[in-house]
Write a structure and sequence with these properties.
11 helices; 0% strand; mainly alpha
Length: 217
């Protein structure tokens, strides 16, 4: 039956990227938990798991891990789409270990660089002292890094079009908004571009015109 065949293909796609969908499952659980918290408790709860300057100075490893397990805003479904479109293909093509290395590098380094820039701004009077407790959680830095590293799985000339589009999408907010999160996202993109050695030696780049999946045997 067509329904069974469709279910089989979806399940096969999920199994091809286990890290992506385990992460999504964790985000689903934590998002449900957030919906059962009062607004006041939720804010304080997330702040203790935030990669802000205060928490990074006292519990850096804990908050760097914990911050990647929660979604600010409580909307899980959009991330199902984003993870399926970007994370899953990256994990399938790089392998789980290399994909996770890109995620970790983008999440950790972009966080440290953006929070370092915020600390510099506080010390030079460009940001209020209260910014040391700014809420900063989520998975967007890792996502930006993975979006960028996928450029190496696309053949020329599409690779340059894709790379330029990524730079525009993340560069315009940095120029117009100039927030520490805008800096973090753009930094993540540069880190993703810099992860080319992790892509070398993997399967050949795929042409966007090719079918997404071969017919089931």
């Amino acid at each position: 039956m067509r329904i069974n065949r469709g279910v089989h293909r979806v399940w096969a796609y999920i199994r091809s990227a286990p890290g992506t969908y385990v992460w999504l499952a964790v985000l689903f659980v934590t998002t449900v938990a957030l919906h059962h918290m009062s607004p006041e408790f939720e804010e304080e709860f997330l702040r203790q798991r935030s990669t802000n300057i205060h928490e990074l100075s006292s519990n850096p490893v804990r908050v760097l891990i914990a911050s990647a397990m929660w979604i600010d805003g409580g909307h899980w479904l959009p991330y199902v789409v984003l993870y399926s479109v970007f994370h899953a293909p990256a994990e399938r093509r790089l392998g789980t270990a290399r994909w996770l290395a890109v995620c970790a590098a983008a999440h950790v380094l972009a966080t440290l660089i953006s929070e370092g820039a915020l600390l510099w701004g506080i010390r030079h009077g460009m940001a209020p002292a209260s910014a040391v407790n700014t809420l900063d959680i989520g998975v967007s830095y890792a996502l930006a890094g993975v979006i960028a590293v996928l450029v190496y799985r696309i053949p020329a000339p599409w690779r340059y079009v894709y790379g330029f589009a990524v730079l525009v999408v993340y560069g315009v907010p940095l120029v117009t908004g100039r927030t520490f999160t805008d800096l973090g996202h753009f930094t993540s993109v540069l880190i993703g571009f810099g992860c080319r050695p992790l892509v070398t030696g993997r399967e050949r780049a795929r042409n966007p015109k090719e079918t997404a999946a071969a017919p089931a045997g």
